[in-house]
Structure formats: C-alpha cells, structure tokens
Amino acid sequence: MDLKKLKQIVKSVATTLKTKNIVPIQKLTDKEDILKDKVALITGGNGGIGFAIAQNFIKSGCAVIIGGTNKPKLIQCCEELKKMGGNAKWIIIDFTKISVLYDEIEKAAKFYNHIDILVNAAGIHSTKSFTNFYNITEDEYDNILNINLRGTYFVSQAMAKYMIDNKIKGHILNISSSTGGEPAWSPYRLSKLGIEGFTKGLAQMLTKHDITVNGIAPGSTATSLLGYQKGDSIATFDNEVGRYILPSEVAEYAKILVSNLGDMVVGETIYISGGRGKYDIR
Question: Is residue 186 domain-resident?
Fold first, then answer.
C-alpha cells in the first residue's frame, strides 16, 4: 500500500471518529406550526418590528414573552396577542439594570418552564429631527449605545448562560439595521455596526453549545419610529426599490431564522433593505 493511500485511510478514520451523531432534518415542519412548542423572549416586543415578530411567532405555534420598560404598552400588546388565540406574557426588561438580567430571564422562563428563542428587537434612534456628526451630544451618544449595543450584549450574555445551564438548543436573533453597512459617523450607525460584529462573535462562542445566532438588518421600515402611521403611503426614496419595508416582511425572515430551517445559517446578518447598506450607501 502506498503512502498516499495510507494517509487517506487514516484521515477517513479520524474524521469518522470526530463526527457527531447528527440526524439531518428529513421533513420540513408545516409552515403554520413551524415554531410549535417553542417559547420566545422578544425584547422590544411592544415596538413596531418586535410586535410584528411576536404576532408572526404566535401564528406559528410559539408562546411569546415580550419585554420592555413601558408597562401599559406591554400589557396592551399582550392583550392583542391573546386575542389571536396565542399564549403571551410580558415582563419588564430594563437595559440600565444589567446585574439583574439573568434573574429576569429565569423569572420569564417560569411562565412556560423554558425559553428557546431570544429576539433582540429593542432599540432607539436619535431624538433629534436632524443629526450630523457635529451636533451629537455625549448624553445622546451614551443613551443610544447603552440601549442598542450594551443592552443587546448583556441580555444575550444572560440568555446564553441560561440556555447553556439548562442545556437548551436555542436561537438568538439580533435585529440590526441596514445603516450598519454604511459609514458609521452617528451613534445609531455605530451601534448597528457593533451589532453585526457581535452577531458573528456570539455565533462563534455559542454554536458549540447548540445555540444558533444570526441577525436581520432591515432598511427603513414602516413603523412609528420613522413617523409612519397606518394608512400612509409606503413609497420612499430611502432605497432603490422605492418603498418601505413592512414589519411583517421582517417577521417572516425572523421566523425562518429561529426555526429548524435556520440551523445551518450561522453568524449571518440578512439584509432586508432594498439594497440599502449593501450597494446603496448613503
């Protein structure tokens, strides 16, 4: 036997020994119950995109827990979700209180005995009607980075610890923005650029624990954050397609990425932006 063939045999045996007993998905789950028996915690679940994701998850058989700081809005959104016939709870998640995040997640898990999915949809924009590099204040910078990036970082850390401690094969999905692919001179863009890097790094850390991490980067979306009101035109010059992205579109991709269909998509940020942030850079 020649040396080359011997090396091939040794390599084949070594590969076989290292291979896990992995069973591939043979049949796709029906779309209507693709998240059946799953439980999702959605931070910012009372916001435009977060609430659309919660609605979509409910329709797909998932129980949801929406987190935020606006208690009346959380209660209202929960009632709307229950009217859809789904299981919905709410919990206060305050990103300024990092030290208690793990405890809050454990408290939330008691609603349905487990949490399989974390969606980081909480985020804020600038309070100014017009911003440029020269009028950003220290307080505004800190406020945006603390909520959008620091909060996402530490709630993901707490959830990762919870999933590992409880041996949960889970999913973490970060809602970023197409501005994360553009020159980052504003605190908001910096925060979203950070989220994209964090999504890759978190995936690198957690994949070995059977926790799948990905992100979605929507472009300008028809929500109240941009002043959109129900019934308004969705036409816009913000992208080459010429219309706003709908929250329901973002929710459809979110559902896929946190289901078994998303297991082999790892560390990716999917742009739903009409080209904005990819080839259309402002």
Answer: yes
Token code pair at residue 180: 């994360």
Element (H, E) at 118: strand 117-120
The helix/strand/coil state of 188 is helix
Residue 18: is its pLDDT beyond 80?
no
Question: Using CA atoms, how far apart are residues 258 and 23, in angstroms rounded to an integer?
Answer: 19
Q: What is the three-class DSSP state of 135?
A: helix
User: Among the residues of 67-186, which ranges form H helices?
Assistant: 71-83, 101-112, 138-145, 152-165
Strand-pairing partners, residue 66, are 42, 90
Amino acid 19: pLDDT: 43
**Mean pLDDT, the chain, integer:** 89
**Cα(183)–Cα(75) distance, integer angstroms:** 38
Q: Which domain holds residue 212?
A: 33-124+137-272
